[in-house]
Amino acid sequence: MFELALTFLMMQQAPAENTDWDEAFGVEEAVRDPQTGELPVDPYDVDNANAGAKPFSGSSIAADFGGKDGIRQIADRFVDLNISDPRVAAIFAGHDHVRLRRTLYEQFCYILNAGCEYTGRDMATAHQGLGTRKPDLNAIVENLQKAMREADVSFVAQNRFLAKLAPMYGDVVTR
Amino acid sequence: MKRVARVLAFAQTAYFVAVAQTATAQVDEAPSVLVESPPPADYNAKLLLTNGISTIGGASGGGISDWATIAGRQSDRGIGVQLHVSGAVLPDYLWQSHGIAVGIADRVELSYARQNFDTQDVGAALGIGQGYVLNQDVWGAKLRVAGDTVYGSPLLPQIAVGVQYKRSLDGGVAAAVGAAHDEGVDFVVSATKLFLARSILLDATARMTKANQNGLLGFGSVGNDDYSVQFEGALAYQFSRRFVMGAEYRSKPDNLGLGEDDWIDIFAAWGATDNITVTAAYADLGSIATFEGQRGVFAQAQLAF
Ligand code: HEM
Question: Could you say which of B20, B35, B148 has the minimum Cβ distance to residue A25?
């Protein structure tokens, strides 16, 4: 009997090439929104307070950053630098960079009082489980400084903005 | 045949499970392997200049004030090293010091410095010999107990406690000027914060000490062998990532009754490369061994990893 079973087993064909494993195992594939190109995230309450800092008052700091266009350029460059920086690239790998570009832009623009609403998640939720450490934060701060420098933001204005982000330390550094 | 079918079904399930497992294993493992891999060797984990510069006593700080900063450019998982050489030219003396500090996990700092103080003509005047050099060894240990210089609440500075064991190698001279000991221990508490919104760094430090002229003239005196609490502080403005200018103050006891003065300096520090910091200062050290008006130029080169 056993030999027979073995024989049958050895005669088994490899599963057909076109087997839909996701269906076979009930895996739901995340589908990018055809409009925004973003992957869905778990539901959360949209609130400007999620940005994690009180925005500046007045419009001078937004001007220092070149308004919405300047801020968009800085946020994009910041993401580019982070995802290609060997120090932190692994942490960003596999995350939705399309969404990250949008939410970071919104967050920067909101905090700099350049006329945006922040619709992303709060900092603790967004960074939960990423396993970031202080040197990772230092690395992305250097990248942000580089992005701001390239956009000719004065050092005084750079530091004023970083002062808004520095207190988020406990939420974005998780170990 | 029923049993065969059952065995086959079992085998097929096992096969599916195995395939599924390898599939998920690949998905799960790939990123974590990347995350665990060590960072590149040239990874300076601290932000530029946040390791401070080595003080004349070897601990990290300004030039004459100890700060709560931890030496070396490594962070919470690394061991950093900081080497320095300093010199000062004063009207009646020459100062030279060098040392090493090791920063462990941005938490503990161990330091050593050798101080050489050339008395030039004063040596002859005091009868200890023309160009007599006073030497001292300083060993330090510092522990960061709370906070962060850059991050977190602006109301919570980086706070560190430290001890420094100082040993004058010229006990004879120390005794001759009336010092009670040729060695002593300082206890130091520092609070340091970079106020990014204003690009200003502030440090406030309290030191319990018996040292006369930092220990070069021994510790305490026959008449007064008590500890006193002295204050050190620094105020610095960050012009760029690499350039800072500021002022420091350091109060000192006058155990020997020689009119020992507080110290003050203005300094400029430049992170010439990611690992080299060059500092120049103009210092007013007041009266040293009754020779007054000791104002001069101080320079330091530091290498940190
Ligand atoms: C104060 C510093 C930081 C700020 C202001 C910040 C801001 C943000 C924002 C706005 C988002 C998007 C939230 C959303 O999708 O709803 C985000 C996500 C993310 N951040 Fe940060 N971040 C900071 C620090 C860091 C650090 C140190 C790392 C790691 C090196 C990091 C890695 C990530 C990653 C991988 C995501 C995507 C998470 C996901 O897709 O679920 N962030 N961050």
Answer: B20
Say yes or no: A111 contacts chain B, CB-CB below 8 A. Answer: no
Min distance A119 CA to chain B CA atoms (Å)? 24
Q: State the CB neighbour count (10 A cutoff) for residue A27.
A: 12
Q: A126 C-alpha to center of ligand 1: Å?
A: 6
Domain presence at residue B281 = yes
B194-214 pLDDT per residue, tens? 999 999 999 999 999 999 999
Q: Where are the alpha helices (DSSP H) in chain B?
A: 2-36, 120-125, 171-176
The model carries a pTM of: 0.87
Under 8 Å CB-to-CB from A66, ≥6 apart: which residues?
A73, A74, A151, A152, A153
pLDDT in tens, A29-41: 789 999 999 999 9
Number of domains chain A contains: 1
**Domain coverage including residue B198:** 53-304
User: Which A residues in the span 137-156 are in contact with B, Cβ-Cβ below 8 Å?
Assistant: 137-138, 141-142, 145, 155-156
**Mean pLDDT throughout B161-169?**
98
**Do B63 and B29 have their domain in common?**
no
Q: What is the domain-level CATH number for residue A137?
A: 1.10.490.10
Say yes or no: CB of residue A99 within 6 Å of ligand 1: yes
Domain count, chain B: 2
